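Colleagues,

For the teaching module next term, I've prepared a clean inverse folding example: a structure given as tokens, and then the sequence designed for it. I'd like students to try predicting residues themselves before seeing the answer, so please don't circulate the second half yet.
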């Protein structure tokens, strides 16, 4: 991989896409940030600018570095702007068919050398790669929310990924100040698999009437040492994302009951009570 800063395209400017854009722009990469929703793109641009401003105020970035990062960010609604990108990271809805479709579109625009990556939490990286004409340049780069703060990044080669690409990407991710870990392409990879029982058992404890949400969250944070309790964390992630991940891990493990989703979360998802971003989830934020 060349040492000149790679131009990076990011598809989806929601919670994850915006955070990843901030990380890579701060690390010196020109960034094309694309969203089909103009309002989401505007929100992301404003929130990245505000985050960079705050980092400069706190002295965590120099003003010049914050200004330079902001100047590297190019919001766009036109995928043709990805033509010169050396890496494209997708962070759109957690839906296999939609992700496969977007990569077909991307491959019609980028060069044959451009590396393609998905930020999927739970889908098979191999299945997304299978929709590509050049699946050997495809892999998973899975950030955690909020991407600018969370150190861990899972790097997930697909079955088709060319040898050494995952190692090259690990070095690149390290150069962004992150700590990459290689994960196998299995449902939920490492962290989202370990996290399923954290959420699932918390919901079961609630459903069985053993404790209320606030008590469970309190016990896990104050006594268990977790940064967030399971209900606060699910609301933070968003039930649109978290429910889909639970369903996808359950299905992908051939309906293993250990990963069975709950109706409690399904109903929140169906109602559009996605958590913090909707003003309502397990808790009320209005
Ligand atoms: P989000 O809903 O906040 O953002 C998704 C964005 O993608 C939206 O702005 C939407 O307008 C845009 N989008 C959807 N389809 C598009 C398309 N076809 N073309 C262009 N833009 C499109 O979602 P998110 O929480 O950022 O999650 C995105 C991905 O990252 C998912 O695959 C999710 O599983 C994964 N992920 C989420 C988290 C999390 O905690 N939220 C953590 C790690 C990974």
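(Answer key — instructors only)
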């Amino acid at each position: 991989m060349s040492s000149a800063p790679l131009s990076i395209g990011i598809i989806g400017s929601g919670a994850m896409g915006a955070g990843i854009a901030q990380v890579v722009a701060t690390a010196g990469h020109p960034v094309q940030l694309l969203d089909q929703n103009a309002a989401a793109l505007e929100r992301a641009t404003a929130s990245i600018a505000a985050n960079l401003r705050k980092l400069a105020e706190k002295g965590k970035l120099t003003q010049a570095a914050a200004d330079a990062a902001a100047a590297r960010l190019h919001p766009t609604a036109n995928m043709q702007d990805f033509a010169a990108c050396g890496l494209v990271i997708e962070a759109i809805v957690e839906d296999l068919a939609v992700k496969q479709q977007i990569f077909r579109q991307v491959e019609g625009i980028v060069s044959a050398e451009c590396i393609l990556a998905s930020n999927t939490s739970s889908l098979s990286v191999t299945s997304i790669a299978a929709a590509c004409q050049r699946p050997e340049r495809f892999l998973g780069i899975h950030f955690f929310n909020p991407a600018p703060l969370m150190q861990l990044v899972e790097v997930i080669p697909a079955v088709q990924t060319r040898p050494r690409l995952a190692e090259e990407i690990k070095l690149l991710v390290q150069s962004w100040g992150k700590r990459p870990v290689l994960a196998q392409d299995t449902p939920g990879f490492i962290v989202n698999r370990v996290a399923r029982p954290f959420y699932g058992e918390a919901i079961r404890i609630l459903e069985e009437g053993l404790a209320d949400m606030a008590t469970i969250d309190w016990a896990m944070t104050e006594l268990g040492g977790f940064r967030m309790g399971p209900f606060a964390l699910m609301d933070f992630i968003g039930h649109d994302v978290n429910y889909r991940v639970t369903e996808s891990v359950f299905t992908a493990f051939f309906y293993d009951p250990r990963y069975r989703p709950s109706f409690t979360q399904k109903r929140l998802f169906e109602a559009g009570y996605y958590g913090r971003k909707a003003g309502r989830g397990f808790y009320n934020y209005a």
